[in-house]
Design brief:
This protein has a single domain (6-181), classed as Beta Barrel (M1 Pyruvate Kinase, Domain 3). The chain is built from 4 helices and 10 strands. The protein has helices spanning 12-21, 80-87, 134-140, 142-149, and strands at 29-38, 44-47, 49-52, 75-79, 99-102, 115-118, 121-125, 161-167, 169-172, 176-181. The longest helix has 10 residues, at 12-21.
Length: 185
């Protein structure tokens, strides 16, 4: 894993300014910008194309290697624009999420139970919260963790969300993400 550059960390005021200047993320159709597997050896493997399955998630990802993998946390997803802003020049692989999407991940746009088609796979938003933790603070600073966790921003899902695979298929970087059904908000 690359070195973590604390000199690139932004304070909360700068994060708020930059966040306010971000263009709105697409709401109905987005794009896959990154696919990643977090191996059991704690390395990160970038994929340009990969199958995803109900039983295994992203091949090679440590999720499937758990004694009892939790389907609610099968595929970790982050919003491309927000994570690029927070990374501030650091590689997006530091986040460790399986998918980066150019799509509005907010609760209002993708409530729990929303179903999306990516490539030939179908995935659904799970109820498991995707919160930052001590690793997030170590990689991007405590200000970034406070920023994404602020009560008024929690419904925006700035840290991301989780999907589970409901129909096996193949996903590639650049694939369109189509919201097929929105869950009950």
């Amino acid at each position: 894993m690359p070195a973590i550059a604390s000199e690139t960390w932004l304070d909360e005021d700068e994060l708020a300014r930059r966040h306010a200047r971000l263009p709105p993320a697409p709401q109905d159709r987005g794009r896959v910008t990154q696919i990643l597997a977090r191996t059991p050896a704690r390395t990160r493997l970038l994929h340009q194309r990969t199958p995803v399955t109900e039983s295994g998630g992203v091949p090679g990802d440590r999720w499937a290697a758990a004694d009892e993998p939790k389907r609610a946390a099968q595929i970790a997803v982050m919003g491309h624009a927000v994570t690029t802003m927070i990374a501030n020049g650091q590689p997006l692989t530091l986040f460790g999420d399986n998918l980066a999407l150019a799509l509005d991940l907010s609760e209002a746009n993708l409530p729990v139970g929303s179903q999306v088609r990516i490539g030939t796979a179908t995935l659904v938003v799970t109820p498991k919260p995707h919160n930052g933790c001590h690793k997030y603070a170590a990689r991007f600073g405590h200000a970034a963790l406070r920023f994404i966790a602020a009560k008024e921003r929690r419904p925006l899902h700035l840290r991301g969300i989780y999907f589970r695979v409901v129909s096996d298929g193949e996903i590639a970087v650049g694939d369109e993400v189509v919201i097929e059904h929105r869950g009950a908000a």
